[in-house]
Description:
This protein is mainly α. The protein has a domain at 48-202. It has helices at residues 12-15, 17-26, 31-71, 84-100, 107-113, 116-121, 128-132, 147-165, 175-189, 191-200, 203-208, 210-215. α3 packs across α8 (147-165) and α8 (147-165) packs across α9. It is elongated and about 60 Å long. The two termini are 13 Å apart. The relative contact order is 0.16.
Amino acid sequence: MHPVDPSKLQLASIVGSGRLAPYERACGADTAKAIRLYTWNIEASAAFLGAYAAFEVGVRNAMHNELTTFYGRADWWAVAPLSTPQNDEVMVASEYLDARKPGAWTEGHLVAELKNSFWEGLLVNRLHAALWNPALINAFPNYTGRRGELRDRLERLRLLRNRAAHHEPIHERDLRVDHRFMCEVATYVSHDLGTWIASHSRLPGVIAGRADTIAGLRPSRF
């Protein structure tokens, strides 16, 4: 089915005045353009989340693999000098898996359950000597910068992921920079990971079509 111009549908009351307000402000109180921008925001969020899905798995697996090698065990979190909150995250994930897959889950299942903030938290200053120098630096073999700058980029992308996943406005961001950062960090892990994301991501095309979408010249899809 060809997309219908969302401004031709009675969507303002469905979306809600509070949620639509920032889009109307961005469009000079033009409700038709605001509805199209809102639709574009959904499209851009979906495109970002698609690319981030590949990014997230690639980064966390690289970090997990290096820590497994360093500690000589797949459940490295049992012996790594994690903080109390980090250990609590591991315990919560373990309890969830015990309830969901009693006796049938593996370390890989737990890796997938841990939040993105957990992996980002492994790059804090406190763990520089314990984890970064001997292990995690190897998860990003193509990176030559500072650990803190890498963590900042991971945090930026995680926060954007959260906004996109919770249907919040991302239209005021420079998404081109966000996408470039994601591709660069992916390349730090693996050139193939970076190429996979850069060559498959729909986000650059969605960004390029923003003005035409708002003007009603380009149909958008979720």
